[in-house]
Every structure is written in structure tokens, then in C-alpha cells.
Amino acid sequence: GESVGLHLPTLSVQEGDNSIINCAYSNSASDYFIWYKQESGKGPQFIIDIRSNMDKRQGQRVTVLLNKTVKHLSLQIAATQPGDSAVYFCAENPSNQFYFGTGTSLTVIP
Amino acid sequence: NAGVTQTPKFQVLKTGQSMTLQCAQDMNHNSMYWYRQDPGMGLRLIYYSASEGTTDKGEVPNGYNVSRLNKREFSLRLESAAPSQTSVYFCASTIGQNEKLFFGSGTQLSVL
Predict the structure, then answer these.
(1) Is A74 within 8 Å of chain B by CB?
(2) pLDDT surpasses 90 at A4
(3) Less packed terminus of chain A by CB within 10 Å, N or C?
(4) Do A69 and A22 meet the contact criterion of CB atoms below 8 Å apart?
(5) Cis bond before residue A110 (omega within 30° of 0)
């Protein structure tokens, strides 16, 4: 999962399996969270968001879970595909600023 | 609808040179941001503009200045570039607080 530090966490999954990427956020006042996908050489791309009044939100093949008690966020990707290979970031928004995790690198093995 | 557009895409500077990174959005967004991305450090906020006419420092503002030229445009200036400013710079915008943040494609800057 994500953490503040010098090493980018990595996750390798077999094509077709489900992926789970975790994120620990720091500010208990954060009330809005986003997951981003970043492919090499490109800008971060919005995947899914969730507000603090929810604990689960589903999109197309993706689900975000929010546990405010332990300040934990997770992204689940169903039936992972080669095109899902990228770095995934979570972001928290306690005010008018967004704070980002360091990211998790997901590699999908064909 | 181009979204968030950044120029240039690549730039090489010598230490002490100055340059301005340009950013424009066509989504009528109120808030705009400049981030830098370094390996293993994630995205760090340099400056942001919550609305036209206002700018505020973020986490790493030293060595940078910004101008919110109008609602569409938010520029980032390096007055005297240093090797420590070698990074990938991203501009982003959002309609308002607790709304999606949209990113440009980035500027890769190298300072020699």
C-alpha cells in the first residue's frame, strides 16, 4: 500500500485477477478523497472519488472503500487488465488543497 | 474541450536562468494549482489559486512565483533556476472545494 517514503510500493497481479491498492491518509479533517491513475509520461487521470459521508463507492470495474476510523482508503480493481498497469495515487482534501500519497506501481502480468 | 493545457512539455535550463511555465484551462474552473512530482515523493503543492485574483503558498513555494492572469490562466515562474528544481511540473484545476481535480500533461524541466 501507499506510504510516505522513498520507495514506491509495487503490486504485481495476474491478468483477470482482482487488485487491491491501499492508502493511509493523515488528516482526520479530510472529507473528500480521490484515486488517480498515472501512466508513464502522462498526467494523473481521475478514477473515482468518495466523500466522507460514504464508506463505499463503485464505478466501472473499480470500487473505493473508506474507513474513517483508521484513516484508510482502498481501491479495488476487478478483472485487472494489462491497460491497468500504472501508478495509482490517493489524494485527500482537508481544505482547499489536495495532498497526495507517493503512489503504488501496479504491474499486470499477461 | 482541451481541459488543462500546459506549455512547454520539455525544457532544459542552465542554473540561474529564468522561465515561465504556462497553464490554461477551458472548463470555467475557479481553482488552479501547480504541483511538482519527484521520484518517490509524490505530488507536492507549490502554489494554488482558489479563485481569480488570489494566490496562496503550498508545501514547497520557495524559488517560485505565480500569476493568476485571469480565470483561465495560471503561470508559474522560476526567477533563478536551480538544479533542485529539476522535476516534472503539473498544473491542475477544479471547479471548487471537494470537487474533482483535473491535471495537465506536465512539463519536464531539467536544470543543469
Answers:
(1) no
(2) no
(3) C
(4) no
(5) no
